[in-house]
Amino acid sequence: MSELSAVAQRAVEAATGAGASDAEAYVSRESGREVRVHGGEVESLTAAVQIGAGVRAWAGHRVGYAYGTDLSEAGVAAIAARAAEAAEVADEDEFASPPQPAKFEALPGLGDPSIAEWETSRVADLALAVERTALAGDPRLVAVETAVYADADEQVAIASSTGVAGEYETSSCYAYLQALAEGEGARESGLGFGLARGPRGLDPEAIGAEGARRALEMIGAGKPASRSCPVVLDETVAASFVGLIGGGLSARAVQRGRSPLAGRLEEEVASEVFVLHDDGREPDGPASAPFDAEGVPRRRTALIEGGRLRSYLYDTYTANREGGASTGSASRQGYRSLPSVSSSNLVVAPGDRSFEQLLAAAGNGVYVTDVAGLHSGVNPVTGVFSVGASGRMIRDGALAEAVREFTIAGELVAMLGAVSAAGAESRWVPFGGSVSTPPLLIAEMAISGS
Amino acid sequence: MTQLLDQDVAARVLARALANGGRFAEVFAERRQGQSLAIDEQRIESVQSGAEEGAGVRVVEGNTTYFAHVDGLDPADLERAADEAAAALKGDRREPQPLRARETTPLPIERRPEEVAAAQKAEMLRELDERGRAKGAEIAQLTASYLESRRQVTVANSDGLFSGDDRTRVRIGAQVVARRNDTVETGAETLGAHRGYELLEDDPGQIAEQAAAKALTLLDAVAAPSGSMPVVVGGGFGGVLFHEMTGHGLEADHIQKGASVYIDKLGERVAQPLLNAYDDGRLPGEWGSDAIDDEGQPTQMTQVIEDGRLTSYLYDHLTAERAGAASTGNGRRESFRHLPIPRMTNTYIAPGDAAPEEMIAEVERGFYAVSFGGGQVDTATGDFVFGVSEGYLIEGGKVTSPCRGATLIGNCLDALAAIDAVGNDFFMKTGICGKGGQKVPVGTGQGHVRVRAMTVGGTER
Questions:
Q1: Distance between CA B320 and CA B247 in Å, rounded?
Q2: How high is the ipTM of this complex?
Q3: CATH 3.30.2290.10 residue ranges in chain A?
Q4: pLDDT higher than 60, residue B33
Q5: Domains of chain B (ranges plus CATH)?
């Protein structure tokens, strides 16, 4: 048993010793680094280790939670006691009970040794290469606001009084930049990014070139006229919307009447083109793990197939409310947060259209490459949205002039019904959680510009 | 106030941080404690508390900052962080200046929230629930939450600064879902301050009623209009408009990296003469206030726009040094795990002399945005967007139908110059601002403000 599992076990015993009828402890240790570069120099270099524990305690059917960073014997006892005390404040909820242990299969390949092997100077060179590539080749590229490389290696252990016990280790890294291009009296910015389990999986030239391309393409952008027309969402924008759909599929939101997809199980909610799974064991998925935030095995769940809503996402509590089984969809943001229902990796099935065929199918419309204001412009309860956007016009099936300062508006479920084609190439995107999606053609959307 | 670190421990850590050279070193120690709970489906749940402590050490040499942070405040933990930050430097040892303790007075807290029983906080949430639900049978769901946090900080640097602060914040929020047949609408309201539990002694239940009223109003909403039109923005959280469209672009890191539309605009006319605006980290009890910033600099009132002219950017230690300016006390960090960067505190447009009713009466056809869900700006291009949480049509100088699904969109310099009236009904609201992956509490404020023309993006066909 590792040191983390030993801490978890000790915390569980301390909580039951402090009066909890059941307890669960989640302990994580994360070591990470971040390099920010600007102007051909390293701007900041961060090295850090974070370790902490979160304890969930039950007093019958009442739940409390506490977390802390002091993992000495006294520190763990104090966290456990605060969790037991917090449970006494909560109200009774007959469905609140601890998860039962279930066998989970190991998931090899979550860690990449290149994180440990690459010295900090080497990953700093990677970040510098991202910036250098973006600025090479076109004099209109005037600066890179920031180019960032970051990685983390995380160990997780969980234990509970019902016999849940497990641990795993996972690594992740990313690099991104915001390139700035100048032309026609204005500055434009462009994002490039890449994700991998270790630095050897990143292509700095591709990341830099993407930022440069996106910034250059926006030069001279004007405001489009208001209209209703076909819209192609690029992978980053499609991922943001898919993430919102994933939020609406959380059984917690559904059971509490706060989802546009509530009460729609087995109903037609999307076009047949739009096929969506949650896959917590997908080998390339950034959120993959052998078990979820409460020790239930991660799995693959069909969410939308054949145009119909097949399943919601459940943790133990929401499954108890319906007398069903958890889909292994408990998540948390580290040891500081209570587990709650959310998607792991959302995977949209790729279609059969090349990018050119998607544009041809759109005919005359808009290709959206960036959206802004998602946190304020989308109502997750009703699904009504209106968000800022930028991109390119599509004229006669081909990309035309750049456009910005307009909004796209509609309703999430109606948008799913209007997906009329999916591209053949998918990409992992860190927006909207962790999403793999191809570009999507929406038959009609409201554009508001001049 | 008592510091988290002994002065001699801090001095030793700084000396170690400069063991391999560096022109500046700093240690930032922090103890964080908090409690939160919520009510949902009329049950108290999500009762939780946290306690963390740790420190971040940075060393600056040339244009590079070396930063390490650790959990724990034992001298050994701090020295480990100092060694790690210094590890990549290759120069000769430098001696830090002797530390001189600087007395600061934290904002006063009358009633420490951690001394109030959790059961009393639960009762307060039950009252919110009852008050909100009492607004009508169409209230389908109500959730309310309570959050308290305390951050004790000590900061010491190689220029001899040794200072600290003790910050307590309390915030409650209510979210309501209203339903009439197939129509569903939501409403939300918050109340927060850099104060203790005394904040909640004066009728906290009214925020649940306000959230419920918003949701109920929207049940009669029509689809928001689309196109360019005059927009009147409400007071308080309407100030997020200025926060996004100007405040972020004045943060000196964006300026120095070429990522702001306000570069080279100091002293220039950017708005009509009726506009005066400030960032003020000293406003008593306000959500974005602190005694010192997270680099130990006393917070201050900075006028950023005077009679329509741009008068100041917002600086932290490093950007001020680079610009040959003085820090404006805007070096803030989410926690000891983050580097300080220039951030707003409480940002507001000072009250003008227009009566809000008249500002609306002068509009033939336009949009009235009472409050926002939030906003976002690309400082480099100046493009911004705001999601309207409560908005109405203005027709013939009168506020008429409520609208759903509206977003305001525009470009900073155009929209700022288009402000043609500022109301006399000033107040402040609380927000959480995200930048570079760090969230900090900020205040926003204004009276009613009218923008001559702005694009409203709605769903109306």
A1: 17
A2: 0.93
A3: 3-217
A4: yes
A5: 7-218 (3.30.2290.10), 222-457 (no CATH)
- Alpha-carbon distance of B102 to B98, in angstroms, equals 13
**Region A423-448 average pLDDT:** 95
Structure tokens at B218: 């929207």
Residue B150, Cβ density class (10 Å: 0-12 exposed, 13-18 middle, ≥19 buried): buried
What does the pLDDT look like over A296-314, one tens digit per residue? Answer: 999 999 999 999 999 999 9
Nearest CA in chain A to B120: A89
Buried b (16+ CB within 10 A) or exposed e, B32-50: bbbbbbbbbeeebbbbbbb
Q: How far is B459 from chain A (nearest CA, A)?
A: 6
Question: pLDDT of B392-436, one tens digit each?
Answer: 999 999 999 999 888 999 999 999 999 999 999 999 999 999 999
- CATH superfamily of this structure's domain A3-217: PmbA/TldD superfamily (3.30.2290.10)
Residue A431 is predicted with a pLDDT of: 84
Q: Which residues pair with B173 in a beta bridge?
A: B145, B190
Count of residues for chain B?
A: 461
Do the Cβ atoms of B227 and A52 come within 8 Å? Answer: no
| Binary contact (A46, B405; C-beta < 8 A) | no
Exposure of B405 by Cβ count < 10 A (0-12 exposed, 13-18 middle, 19+ buried)? buried
Cβ neighbour number for residue B2 with a 10 Å cutoff: 7
Mutant choice from B33, B383, B408 vs A, greatest count of A C-beta within 10 A: B383
Euclidean distance between CA atoms A403 and A218, whole angstroms: 7
> How far does chain A reach from its first CA to its final CA, in angstroms?
64
DSSP state of B98: P
Check: pTM over 0.80? Answer yes or no.
Answer: yes
A417, containing H or E segment: helix A412-417
Residue type, B10: A
